[in-house]
Predict the structure.
Amino acid sequence: MAKTPLLLVPGLLCSPRLFAPQLAALSDVAEIVVPDWRTAPLSIFDSWESTARWVLDRMPPGPFALAGLSLGGMISVEIMQVAADRVTKLVLLDTGMRGQNDIEKATRRARIRLANEGRFELVLGLQLARFLPAYRLSDKKLVDEVMTMCLETGVEIYKRQEELAANRVDRRPDLPRIKCPTVVVCGRDDMATPLAFSEEIAAGVKGSELIVVEGCGHLVTMEKPEETNAILRRWLSR
């Protein structure tokens, strides 16, 4: 049986390490591509379209299944604006489609200023508190893996991604145009993109399925790999 081409798009501060459990578990059913931000010119983050097109260019020609987490989910919906005809099915993990208000923009740019001042470790601490629920911070293996991922992505990519996120448009009005089979996944305790954001997406994409993962925060692929793998395997088999 032929394997499904599958594009997995990492989020802000995320390297391919974000999807390591999926790469290991789903290789029997999917030909998986995970873009590595470290191989991209920083200029791709000048606009949402240029980011989406760079990610799209990582895939060979033809149709593919698409999944993205957080910023990667937002980029996935940008891909739907330019190449919806190639996407056979879609999963949006722990993400949101709202634009940013002035307070949210100011908060993001304050974090960029901290990074510019050489306080990247402080920024990572702030992000860790958004990425993982407090009850997971005692899991040293998980915390170390998340911090390694953030550090290997690095400060320059982080700053460009944060500015990109500050300038995102509200994509909620575009959600009804998504026609491919779609699954929306969110950790119950996601602090970065709360469950209400996923509920909005599921309401906007006709016929989509919303799955809430209990005991989980923002990084569902790392926090709950077995549950995530099962969700993706069922989705791929449809």
The chain has a mean pLDDT of 97. The chain has ten helices and six strands. The longest strand covers residues 87-93.
